[in-house]
């Protein structure tokens, strides 16, 4: 499945402009490399997604470096659009100490593995239905998906286990 994106307006983030993209499928945007020198940090964009062609929803997605923050509406469209790429989901809460400790290391992993899609889900009240669907019991929990299926899970801030799991799924 090919993903086509048409950009209707792209302006310099330094000027405070909003980037508007349109597509019939989910969009995964990664910021890094040369783009990092431009000062791109808190970019907001709207993702138009309709995998079956019957409905289209517009939902804001925040980009945090190369880690994309998702919510209950954007998670599955982004995972489905990833196809056979490895997807890693960090399920966290704002109040969780271990979540805060591992967050910068998770960010570093997103820079190291540029063939992997890194997502982040705040398991707040708004996203509770998705967190429940994914079977979260503790935070942080990392789910690794391939072909839209969960293939590995790491509970707790176990960085070495997370790296080993990513390596294992990437090589399979």
UniProtKB/TrEMBL annotation:
**Keywords associated with the record:** Disulfide bond
Q: Where is the Thioredoxin domain?
A: 36-171
Q: Where are the transmembrane segments?
A: none
InterPro entries cross-referenced by the UniProt entry: Thioredoxin-like_sf, Thioredoxin_CS, Thioredoxin_domain
Q: Which domain of life is it from?
A: Eukaryota
The record, for Gene3D superfamilies, names: Glutaredoxin (3.40.30.10)
Q: Does the UniProt entry include the keyword Disulfide bond? A: yes
* Name this protein carries in UniProt: Oxidoreductase
């Amino acid at each position: 499945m090919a993903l086509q994106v048409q950009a209707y307006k792209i302006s310099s983030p330094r000027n405070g402009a909003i980037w508007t993209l349109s597509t019939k499928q989910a969009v995964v945007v990664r910021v890094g490399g040369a783009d990092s020198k431009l000062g791109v940090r808190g970019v907001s964009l709207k993702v138009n997604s309709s995998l079956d062609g019957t409905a289209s929803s517009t939902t804001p997605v925040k980009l945090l470096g190369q880690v994309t923050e998702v919510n209950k509406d954007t998670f599955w469209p982004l995972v489905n659009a990833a196809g056979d790429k490895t997807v890693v989901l960090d399920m966290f809460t704002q109040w969780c100490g271990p979540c805060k400790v591992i967050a910068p290391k998770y960010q570093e992993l997103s820079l190291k593995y540029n063939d992997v899609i890194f997502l982040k889900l705040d398991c707040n009240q708004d996203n509770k239905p998705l967190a429940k669907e994914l079977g979260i019991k503790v935070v942080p929990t990392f789910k690794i998906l391939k072909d839209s299926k969960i293939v590995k899970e790491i509970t707790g801030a176990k960085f070495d286990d997370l790296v080993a799991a990513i390596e294992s799924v990437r090589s399979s």
